[in-house]
Write a structure and sequence with these properties.
The complex is a heterodimer. By secondary structure, chain A is mainly β. Chain A has no helices and 11 strands. In chain A, the strands form 2 sheets. In chain A, strands 2, 4, 5, 6, 9, 10 and 11 form a 7-stranded mixed sheet that branches. Chain B has a single domain (about 5-115), classed as Immunoglobulins (Immunoglobulin-like). Chain B has no helices and 12 strands. By secondary structure, chain B is mainly β. Chain B starts with a strand and ends with a strand. In chain B, the strands form 3 sheets. In chain B, strands 2, 5, 6, 10, 11 and 12 form a 6-stranded mixed sheet that branches. A 4-stranded antiparallel sheet of chain B has the order 3-9-8-7, with no helix packed on it. Chain B is about 0% helix and about 50% strand. Classes of the chains: A mainly beta, B mainly beta. At the A-B interface, strand 4, strand 5, strand 9 and strand 10 of A face strand 6 and strand 11 of B.
Chain lengths: ~110, ~120
């Protein structure tokens, strides 16, 4: 596609519910990032993929968070047993390769009630 | 660990005037990149300008330019001839340049810029 696409744009989940957030990177982009952005804050790193390999997951806040990119293109961020503190915008970004410009999607706003 | 600090939570500027947004960072790396990203209400982060640390010349991109002071670890963004469409959150970001090890953007907390008509 022309840009990074994320779906859904908005998600409301009841506390304890599992959610899955999808990211479609730009075709051919090797690098893919997930970031979490709390209201009024800067994005915080969650995880990084190079093709299908998850090379860095140091930013995942707990074992309730899980990300995958099985075929090296589309990625899914899954949050199990959501809690109120998980409410944030989740941003996905992709780049052609390391140290080239990253393009961001419009994010998914997750609200846990 | 690297950190990025933006000390101006909010700024405003009159249309057509010039404004400077501040950013400082802390790192022990010698090879790195610095970025300014713009985030309008649509939430999509858009790259404004990028600076390689090994380049002494300050990057410019049309109305946007940076003042990169490597020794002082300062990286400010100057917006000339401000336009209403420049109204957005601006984030300063750091990335290591080493091709091995950690690869991620480290963002500051942002500056909310409002351009006034």
């Amino acid at each position: 596609g022309a840009g990074v696409s994320q779906s859904p744009r908005y998600k409301v989940a009841k506390r304890g519910q599992d959610v899955a957030l999808r990211c479609d990177p730009i075709s051919g982009h090797v690098s893919l990032f997930w970031y979490q952005q709390a209201l009024g804050q800067g994005p915080e790193f969650l995880t990084y993929f190079q093709n299908e390999a998850q090379l860095d997951k140091s930013g995942l806040p707990s074992d309730r968070f899980f990300a995958e990119r099985p075929e090296g293109s589309v990625s899914t961020l899954k949050i199990q047993r959501t809690q109120q503190e998980d409410s944030a915008v989740y941003l996905c970004a992709s780049s052609l390769r390391r140290n080239t410009e990253a393009f961001f999607g419009q994010g998914t706003r997750l609200t846990v009630v | 660990a690297q950190t990025v600090t933006q000390s101006q939570p909010e700024m405003s500027v009159q249309e057509a005037e010039t404004v400077t947004l501040s950013c400082t960072y802390d790192t022990s790396e010698s090879n790195y990149y610095l970025f300014w990203y713009k985030q309008p209400p649509s939430r999509q982060m858009i790259l404004v300008i990028r600076q390689e640390a090994y380049k002494q010349q300050n990057a410019t991109e049309n109305r946007f330019s940076v003042n990169f002071q490597k020794a002082a670890k300062s990286f400010s963004l100057k917006i000339s001839d401000s336009q209403l469409g420049d109204t957005a959150m601006y984030f300063c970001a750091f990335m290591r340049g080493d091709l091995s090890g950690t690869y991620k953007y480290i963002f500051g907390t942002g500056t909310r810029l409002k351009v006034l008509a």
